[in-house]
Amino acid sequence: MPTVEELMDASSGWFQVEQAEQLPTPVLLVFPQRVEHNIQQMLQVAGSPERLMPHVKTHKCPQVVQMQLERGIRRFKAATVAEAEMTARLGPQEVMLATQPVGPHVERVVRLAQSYPQVRITTLADSPGVIDHLAQAARQAELELGVYIDVDPGLGRTGVPPGERVLELFRRIQAHEYLRFAGLHVYDGHMGKLAPEQRPAAVDATWKRLEPLLGRLEQAGAEPFDVVAGGSPSFAHHARHPRAICSPGTTLYWDLGYGTRVPELNLQLAAVLVGRVLSRPEGGRVTLDLGIKSLCPDQPRRAEVYGLVGAEMRLHNEEHYVLEPEQPCDWPVGRVVYAVPYHICPTVALYDEVYVAREGQVVGRWPVEARRRALEV
Questions:
Q1: 217-248 per-position pLDDT tens digit
Q2: Residues 187, 99: one domain?
Q3: Pairing between strand 179-186 and 361-367?
Q4: Spatial contact of 273 and 29, defined as CB atoms under 8 Å apart
Q5: Are residues 152 and 8 both part of a single domain?
Q6: Cβ atoms 325, 239 nearer than 8 A
């Protein structure tokens, strides 16, 4: 397993920018050349762009989608209708809403499909009632809507087990004139908790359960369909199975959470937080401006700060992040600091825009456009 220090690679100074003193911290800094490296690694693992359906929920940014389109990736996954709208506007082949739509979101999905007829808009379902609602909305709009069945491989969050209930949902989709069975969606986020050496066998066990189901669906009359499987932790192992369409997401920016638990992927950290020392309270503590409104608090360790790796977190409030270094620290108030989050996805969602850096220079800003859940087509 790589150490945190090895993942952060402080010796190269890749994370530093000359204009840091002018940045209105806290800000999130993205490095496109590292994103490009990660896209190349995704393609290498998958084998071809046709076997990728990357998730946009990590970056929520049209520029990052465009970078993938330029490498031949044509299908994407989204967690919200706002993310799906942002992605559809760029003209890919398919955008899947990978959250079962409920309430008014059913009609929003249909309006999205109406607005972008050149893009295949799909969604997923694990409920007969949602399938019926989708069918009604699609009929009223007189358009065909592709629906994936959400299969639960053991996460216990959404979906139905890979068995008879999948066949029941398939028959329900087939019974509706304006719905089309698109395939299966099999997300296994729990794989990230396994040790690296356990993941290959666990993914193989998932496919062993899926294979009889695939045969039963084909016998029931299912036309050629996709199996969109896995996430970032299980990505490399699903890629070994030829039926899998792989859908990693965190791989675009990467973070210390997956970096320390998923060494199978040769990915680079591509985003850092830039902050400042706000205060030096007694006891040697260092207070930074990276509070919970700028750094996601859902992990036991929130981030590692270059120069203070391993420092203990003492407080994390709305605007303050208080660390106690192992060794005495002479950092003055106002000093610029760089930090790498353990969970990048919800950290990105705290920002309206990211700053973009190339070769040590800040060269622009990109909107985190799809963080606005109310985005309408």
A1: 999 999 999 999 999 999 999 999 999 999 99
A2: yes
A3: unpaired
A4: yes
A5: no
A6: no
| Residues 19, 64 within the same domain | no
Q: Is 252 exposed, middle or buried (0-12, 13-18, 19+ CB in 10 A)?
A: buried
3-state secondary structure 146-158: EEEEEECCCCCCC
**Residues 304, 309: Cα–Cα separation, whole Å:** 5
What does DSSP assign to residue 360?
T
Measured torsion, CA atoms of residues 375, 115, 95, 130, in degrees rounded to the nearest 10 = 80
Among candidates 153, 157, 151, 103, which has minimal Cα distance to 130? 103
- Please report, for the domain that includes residue 325, its CATH number: 2.40.37.20
Q: Is the pLDDT of residue 377 over 50?
A: no
Tokens of 344: 């990048």
Q: Are residues 209 and 128 in the same domain?
A: yes
Characterize the bridge pairing of strands 312-316 and 321-324: antiparallel
- Cβ atoms of residues 169 and 139 within 8 Å: no
Give CA–CA dist 20/74, Å, rounded.
36
Give the pairing of strands 226-229 and 271-279. unpaired
What is the DSSP annotation of 158-205? SSB-SSHHHHHHHHHHHTSTTEEEEEEEE--GGGGGS-GGGHHHHHHH
User: Taking a C-beta distance cutoff of 8 angstroms, is the pair 353, 369 a contact?
Assistant: no
Provide the edge-to-edge strand list for the sheet that holds 120-125: 75-78, 94-97, 120-125, 145-151, 179-186, 226-229, 244-246
3-state secondary structure of 274: strand
**Would residue 143 count as lying in a domain?**
yes
Among 283, 368, 306, which Cα is nearest to 20's?
306
| Mean pLDDT confidence for 306-320 | 97
Instruction: Give the pLDDT confidence score for residue 45 in this predicted structure.
Output: 97
